[in-house]
Amino acid sequence: MRLANFVMPRSGGLRTALRCLGEGYLAAGHEPVLIVPGPTASDEETPHGRVITLPGPEVPGSGGYRVLGTGRRRLTRLLDSLAPDRIEVSDRSTLRWTGRWARERGVPSIMVSHESLDGLLAVWGVPAAIRSGLADVANRRTAAAYDRIVCTTSWAAAEFRRLGVENLVEVPLGVDLDTFHPRRRDPAVRARWAPDGEVLLVHCGRLSGEKHPEVSVDALRALRDAGVPAALVVIGDGPRRAALAYRAARLPVRFAGFVPDRSVIAGLLASADVVLAPGPVETFGLAGLEALACGTPVVVNSASALPEVVGPAGIAAAGTGAAFASGVRDLLDRPEGERRAAARARAELFTWPAAVDGFLRAHGVRAEVPSW
């Protein structure tokens, strides 16, 4: 049984992870059931398992995120009726009480930490003097509530390790190495988005405050001010789109909006020269890994977990337009064949079968996970 909040209805890294893990659990012979919030109730069978949607309120100012948190009694009844063998929870704030529910019923439980609480508090403007203390209190409670805490990177695990949390494991996520592949590179895509032969940059992600998408626009401005002919394509949507369009006035920034077809996204990523991932609190960064799988190097925010993920196939930069522009120039200075081969090779270290196997082991289930 899996529960998650803050899952966007159409896209997002958490949505991708839930889908791919569900497919892997099915392939390994399990019966995954996922409970998520939505505008209306539904119950359907999908290629990644049964998905139950419960009506949940929209978080004000979030651009569409919903939570299950206000329907605790209803959710408790549902959990009791489903009688899961194990639970896997992807929200350590409003759903933390499910750890107690599981313990009272003898159900093994894990919490997957998809965000840095310390980092989110910083984004929300909480003063540094109290930020770590608040995060430590919440993280101690989370670690005590569940049998195991799963983090996808050492960066994400650091705020638990500093507390001496022992029920902690690290399991990297994976990437679809077939959909996201260098063969998706297409001269026609380049011609459409960079019609004057510019250096093609791509920003792929939700346009919300915590993702710092304005850094990508500022990086483009810095590059062009330095005489580098570059253009930027922004894939994704969100509450910051209007502000970004205003910021990008008179710059060659093209907003692709929400792109539902992953093969189209892969074509853009593979056809780009460099992908930009400026989010400072990313605990893994699937979009950056998908770019690497397409053979395209990435400039990432040095404050996030992404330097750990991209390794030598990318550049870690401070979260400013000038620093990201410098990172782009450094990558472009590398021979194209070398930088693209290094990107693909790095991505091939992260597979979904390995991720599923790691998650099953965290659940105490040992099973061979076939490729799919």
TrEMBL record:
Transmembrane recorded as keyword: no
InterPro entries, A to Z: Glyco_trans_1, Glyco_trans_4-like_N, Glycosyltransferase_grp1
Q: What range(s) does the Glycosyl transferase family domain occupy?
A: 195-346
A GO molecular function assigned to this protein is: glycosyltransferase activity
Q: Where is the Glycosyltransferase subfamily 4-like N-terminal domain?
A: 12-173
Keyword terms of this UniProt record? Glycosyltransferase, Transferase
Q: Which PANTHER family match?
A: SULFOQUINOVOSYL TRANSFERASE SQD2 (PTHR45947:SF3)
> What name is this protein filed under?
GDP-mannose-dependent alpha-(1-6)-phosphatidylinositol dimannoside mannosyltransferase
Q: Which organism is it from?
A: Phytohabitans aurantiacus
